[in-house]
């Protein structure tokens, strides 16, 4: 996935984004207007004009005060809402890109990294509209408007404001990049290292305790933590420098407003003032500059505005360098999100076939394999090859062979997690021509390590057949020998725990078995169903699941353990 | 929400230094603020009164100085905040890491591990905004606002009064709205944790979802969960931002009031322009820090909620709710025991009348057995009989009644030497659990886990005994041992136990289902290795249901499920019988 694509997903659509931006601009403009109008009002009032002359300014001051608060409130609500909506789109599109790759195309993704990416980086991406685009757009619009306004009053002051704002932008980002850029880039990988290390310790604390290795691991983790802290401290001075530079330029803008405004004031106050300004112009280059650009007449109230408007504009503009800093972090996160989702699907992963009307019926569940082979992504050679087999409805096929003979690879090829070489037909149709979903509706898999969701027993069963009632679920649990155990634990509402932590290996296998029964696949592959089940139960369990499968359903049983020959109709030995 | 959580100061001493430096900087800041307003207003007034630029040079120079000092202060304040956040986060992270061994594996098994990791990693980052945005403004509020108020009163008591009367509205709103939002904010943080778990859960269970054709439906679920998160957060934000709105409004209206009142008094001629401008510039400064505090209110709440989870862990560890400390350095007494066992020759483990009770059920009830040295004992029994729980009890991971004694013979003398028995310590056990529990790093580093100076020869020997001699010792695993197949990981875990036994002379070797993922040939090789270890004199206890292990055993000990727990065997048999008699209806129902 491309970084630009991730960023595009993180930025809410214009229609959602625009209201926040408009309110933001209005609020910032009101803040500048409040100070400008107040300054004009006060200085004008000092001339003691009739009160009527001031009433417009008085109304303006009050309107600006109300507007600043109200627009700000609306802006924040709108922009946050838009960002959250964008997050939903982003999560979903990342997930949708994972679907065709899972499970075998994602094998290289380390779990700790996955956690950091999907929780940390995706959340970080919310900052793109909120902390990058919105403040940048708002302050640029307001800054340009202020520069135009000041230029109309006094071109030289306008130019000075433009120059200081541009410098603030350039220097603020440049200094930031110099001081903190490297440290910030260092921060993300160290943070991921620390997250990985923490997850390792938290997940395997029992092992570390049993082997007396807790302290060594924690020491190592503390080292990583120290690196993380050092990298974070490196970024600290960068953020500070940005604030310092912005504050300095804000002061410079006010200073320039006075420097150019005071001589220009002389033009209107009289001949003496004019002469004074001319004297200064002769003395100082800046004065010349001011006199040349001043061009016209300003009065006292305008001078007060020239001195005070930069203060308000810089308050608004202060968010720009911070937005640039936020942008760098957002970009790093976007890059890592992009990395987590490979752009090119490995050739070993089946390409998606569009869903057609074609349905594989009950009679069409006969499977033919001719010279079948398959391999894992990035593997050097085929995990198995030359497999030929006919599976008719009601067949019981035993697949045996030592570890590494390709038994699980075969199972994954049959459910189209992996692509295959040779022929594989279902009801006479080449499986490659069928949508993978359609294949999996016919051929079901009971995985070796069944995944149990962090939910209750009911939710862990129900997704296999959503129409099932509690009665159905308890029946199935009874068939796999878990009914009493489930009732003991509090029935279907009993929590199975994070990744099945509250369930033993044998029980997890039984829950998975129950799911396969509920889903009612015409062909079921059991990948080592008895691996974690007691031997005296194992035979009964096999007999049970083969009996439950019924006469019309075919079963492919992958097992390295002995299976009574009476139970199977054919045996495939992989070497 | 309290302005500053007391526990933060308690657990993170670095927070105190941050507040100290922050107060000094704030004091300098307020001097700059007043000086800047004074200089600008006096320059404007002098210019209007006709003073040329040359006459104002002195004031302008002072203005430059003030601007320079002010920018240096702005820089230092940011640095102080960023350093404070970093150091405090570091301290809290370290405290949590320190707390983990005190809490132990049994405490962790009741938690979502991903959530615990998130708390220490990305969860604490909420403190960044807390420190950089909220706390500095809080300090400024305490220092700057009173000083500015005093100055305002001194120059123009009417404006001072306006500001003084408006100011209390802000904390009032904060308290009122804070009360209203507190519950919602706590809920939101919990929901965030649940949500991060939910999204990961879906991604990790993706292959299972694909098998059942449910992967596409999860899109809607993710959308729904995220949307739920959005609406929950927006509910909080509407309230939080409302407080921001109130603050902004109070501040802007106060400035407007001051400006208009000054204007009217200037028209009357009852006030000097210089004072008017000075007061106008200073009045917003009285509100600025407080406005920032209000604006960052939700950031602060996030920070406090994030620390809540950390403090919960730290408080649990501090209470000592869990008896033992699992850190090795604290176990000096146990280390002495290890030395004792090494010097002597342990000959048996006696388990007498051991019971393990969890809050809701009994896992092991009155179990007694003796495991002899130099022999392979296999512990068998149906699932749920408490085999793994017994192993956890041997390792001291769960509390139990009864006793587990290690019997040994001093100096390895003959039969005449009297048996001495001592409680079995974890340090005397080399263990491989049901879950391989491998860590990031090379296979060799996994095998020699816990050994500061690993021996390559022993690693090779241990791998050979575990039928894993074919694995490359320098192959590097990912987090949680990813990169190996189930069977390979299992054998590496067994090799790790053997290594510990060989290198430290742990007399007891406990293997929990070591061959569940192995084929028969590999299993046979593993059994040969296990027998070799046993025949050299170790007390070997293997939990296994595999016939091959039972055949190879010198002793098979059966465990039965405590009364009240139905044996799954019976249920499966009943179901099989039912299926045999009523086969057709059952399959019809499933099909």
Automatic annotation (TrEMBL), chain A:
Location, primary (coarse class): membrane
A Gene Ontology term for the protein's cellular component: plasma membrane
A GO biological-process term: glutathione transmembrane transport
InterPro entries xref list: AAA+_ATPase (IPR003593), ABC1_TM_dom (IPR011527), ABC1_TM_sf (IPR036640), ABC_CydC/D (IPR014223), ABC_transporter-like_ATP-bd (IPR003439), ABC_transporter-like_CS (IPR017871), P-loop_NTPase (IPR027417), Type_1_exporter (IPR039421)
Entry's transmembrane regions: 21-43, 136-154, 160-181, 231-260, 272-295, 302-327
Listed Pfam families: ABC_membrane, ABC_tran
Keywords recorded for this protein, A-Z: ATP-binding, Membrane, Nucleotide-binding, Transmembrane, Transmembrane helix
ABC transmembrane type-1 domain location: 20-262
Coiled coil region boundaries: none
KW Membrane (keyword) present: yes
Protein name in UniProt: Thiol reductant ABC exporter subunit CydC
Entry superkingdom: Bacteria
Keyword Nuclease: no
Residues of the ABC transporter domain: 367-575
Molecular function per GO: ABC-type transporter activity; ATP binding; ATP hydrolysis activity
Compartments where found: Cell membrane
NCBIfam families to which the protein is assigned, alphabetical: CydC
Bilayer topology: Multi-pass membrane protein
